[in-house]
Amino acid sequence: MLRGFLMLAAFFGFTGVALGAFAAHGLKNRLTPEYLAIFHTGVTYQLVHTLALLGVALLATQIPGRLITWAGASFAIGILLFSGSLYLLTITGISKLGIITPFGGLAFLVGWFCLGLAAWRLA
User: Fold this and answer.
1) Where are the bilayer-spanning segments (predicted)?
2) CA–CA distance from 43 to each of 20, 52, 70, 116 (Å)?
């Protein structure tokens, strides 16, 4: 799991920074301020949960188990669903894509819950 989660963290970190720069420079004059703020929310959540994924990768070496694996997988799914839906919504203007966003938020919550439960179970 270490390699997989580290690779995902590197990918999401790289794309989060790239998308943030793209929004700041390439989309600034193309999106409404409201849509730009939505895009920025996607970048923020992506980068925060990239750090969480990095932490999970490191924890997986010390605390192996399903809960840590589920936490990492949930963070990755959350980034794809939450941030990805916000990016697509703002770029395409298809507001119905916003229905996907809460599922990503739920995945983030599951990840944090699994991480907390794994911590609780430590001896």
Assistant:
1) 36-60, 67-91, 97-120
2) 6, 14, 22, 24
pLDDT tens, residue by residue, 97-123? 999 999 999 999 999 999 999 999 997
| C-alpha distances in Å from residue 12, one per residue of 27, 83, 108 | 20, 11, 15
Whole-angstrom Cα distance, residue 26 to residue 5? 30
Percent of the chain with pLDDT over 90: 93
Report which DSSP code applies to 31: S
Q: Are 75 and 108 in contact (CB under 8 A)?
A: yes
Torsion region of 51: left, alpha or beta (phi above 0 gives left; psi -120 to 50 gives alpha): alpha
Question: Which of 104, 76, 98 shows the shortest CA–CA distance to 15?
Answer: 76
Both structure tokens of 86: 């916000």
Task: Extract the tokens encoding 77.
Answer: 């799914």
The per-residue pLDDT for 41 is 98
DSSP state of 93: -
